[in-house]
Amino acid sequence: MAVNLTKEELKQYDGKNGHKAYVAVDGTVYDVTGVEAWQNGEHHGNLAGQDLSEVITKAPHKKSVLANLPVVGKLV
């Protein structure tokens, strides 16, 4: 079931205190909750609950990792 989230709503999914960890890239929201590298909602200084569209282009893996992540919905 895909959902639409605003940037404000996305902030709730920070991976802390039992919350799921979501990140947005290019308007698509991905669930990184089960990804070991995103434990506690943090990954190489980046925080879950945010739009990481610009950040991911500077990462060594670029957008290749997105194909392995569950899509939650859209950032609106």
Automatic annotation (TrEMBL):
Gene3D superfamilies attached to this UniProt entry: Cytochrome b5-like heme/steroid binding domain
Domain Cytochrome b5 heme-binding: 5-76
InterPro entries: Cyt_B5-like_heme/steroid-bd, Cyt_B5-like_heme/steroid_sf
UniProt xrefs under Pfam families: Cyt-b5 (PF00173)
SMART domains in alphabetical order: Cyt-b5
Record protein name field: Cytochrome B5
